[in-house]
Amino acid sequence: MSTPWSPDSWRAKPVGQTVEYPSPTPSSSSSSSAERDPDPVLFKRKQGLEAVAGKLQTLPPLVSAVEIERLKLNLANVANGKAFLLQGGDCAELFDYCTSEKIEHRLSLLLSMSLILIWGMKLPVVRVARMGGQYAKPRSSQTEVVDGKTINSFRGHNVNGIDPDDRLPDPERLLSAYFHSAATVNHVRSLLASGFASLPTSAHQSVPWSLPLAHVRSPELLKSYEEIVANLSGALEFMSVIGVDRSATTNSAAAALESADIFMSHEALMLEYESALTRKLRVPAFAAKTKDEEGWYCTSAHTVWIGDRTRALDGAHVEFFRGLRNPVGIKVGPSMEPDELVRLLGIVDPNKEPGKVTLISRYGAELVEKKLPAHISAVLQSGHKPIFASDPMHGNTRTSSAFPGVKTRHMHDIVSEISASLRIHASMGSRLGGVHLELTGDITEDGLSVTECLGGSMRLEEEELGLRFESYCDPRLNFEQALDIAFLLSQSAGS
Ligand code: PEP
Ligand code: MN
């Protein structure tokens, strides 16, 4: 028998990756104007974490139950083999990424990748951005040494700052996280509602989300991408000739050409934040079993995941996740035992709902052959129907030989982990339903992309890492390397 769940029941369990906040400064008892708190925001800050959580509880949800349940339906399709999941974005999203340009670059890359996947796989793609809230980072070491001084590690913008002088955790950042998420989600919604994701109508029409292809280094990659766009334009022209009216919003096929769904996700690491945004809401009629059914929704994002470091069966994160109606992700690293995985599924997915859980495996190219088969067979035998996704990034991080201390990843390892996952699933009568990638569509003013991962069709060399290494956490695929992965996956379909 499980104990009763509430958005706060996690507080009775051990919390992994805790953040030690400084005690709140007592507010001044003096009434002299010089000492009085100058403004209410500063006053609130002095009240610490509790006041911030109290304020968050009063703020509106960032996403709705209808949107969350719509994603859940989409993910059930993925689990049933009728769609593919593409999840990706920054390792650590910064508050500074909340600009129209950066948001548009990120959406553009996800849309371009999904175009390649849809074209090659002949399946719908469910797009989930690591965005609009990916502000908290678990760290293997809570401190680091900078200029001979031991300081707190950077834990993500909703905990502390990047500047070595700004590493004290500040609860007020959680409020800032909410507002940056709100602005990001709002911009994504307004872009999508305004036709940002619409498809090209001719080979010569550029779409709002087209990529800066002029700087693509690999002629083969450019050619493959342009071929897809030209083929697609041809198909769309044909449809318009035979009279499919793209402006007819009652026609769902036509509406699909005008827009696309993009859902938001992040790691639900900071439980004070996540539980403050968890609300009891009416379950939408299309998803409800009874007329007035209600459920608990974590409204900070459409879906959230548990990291590999905080997935202890008896830990606070698993306790929090077990009460949510949202579809959720679980990172699965090499230390996960097959029976532990099944017990975890039993806790967060007691009703064995298809697609309720996405297992995001991240073993590393060297361990995937050893670890994945036992996980697949344990899950298949358990009767749970999660999505199996591959995160080929986190088991393949290594230190650069040219730039000591700089983390990088080689496309060779990334491709090898994905290919092995595809092969192993196919050989066991299972299916790789999605990928989870760290990537960025960011480009500099002169159209150049970041240089954080090695190799790919652009053949990025170790010596080039220093050119535009901009990540403050893990290295991300740039847009050319991300398109390489999309082509790899699209070509694997049916093979
Ligand atoms: C991440 O996704 O950035 C991350 C820290 O992953 P993991 O929990 O798998 O290490
Ligand atoms: Mn990461």
Task: Describe the 3D structure.
The structure is a single chain. With 495 residues, this protein is of the alpha/beta class. Helices cover 36% and strands 14% of the residues. Strands 1-2-5-8-9-10-11-14 form an 8-stranded parallel beta barrel, surrounded by 5 helices. A 3-stranded mixed beta sheet has the order 12-13-15. Helix 10 crosses helix 11. The relative contact order is 0.15. Bound molecules: phosphoenolpyruvate (PEP) and manganese (II) ion. Phosphoenolpyruvate binds next to loops.
Topology, pairings included?
Blueprint: H1 40-46, H2 49-58, H3 65-79, E1 84-89, H4 100-121, E2 125-130, E3 143-146, E4 149-152, H5 172-193, H6 219-241, H7 252-258, E5 263-267, H8 271-276, E6 278-282, E7 294-298, E8 303-306, H9 316-322, E9 328-332, H10 338-348, E10 357-361, H11 368-382, E11 387-390, E12 397-399, E13 407-410, H12 411-427, E14 434-438, E15 453-454, H13 479-492
Parallel strand pairs: 1-2, 1-14, 2-5, 5-8, 8-9, 9-10, 10-11, 11-14, 13-15
Antiparallel strand pairs: 3-4, 6-7, 12-13
The structure holds phosphoenolpyruvate and manganese (II) ion.
Manganese (II) ion (MN) is lined by residues 91, 394, 438, 473-474.
Catalytic activity: D-erythrose 4-phosphate + phosphoenolpyruvate + H2O = 7-phospho-2-dehydro-3-deoxy-D-arabino-heptonate + phosphate
Binding site for phosphoenolpyruvate: 130, 331, 362
Cofactor: Mn(2+); Co(2+); Cd(2+)
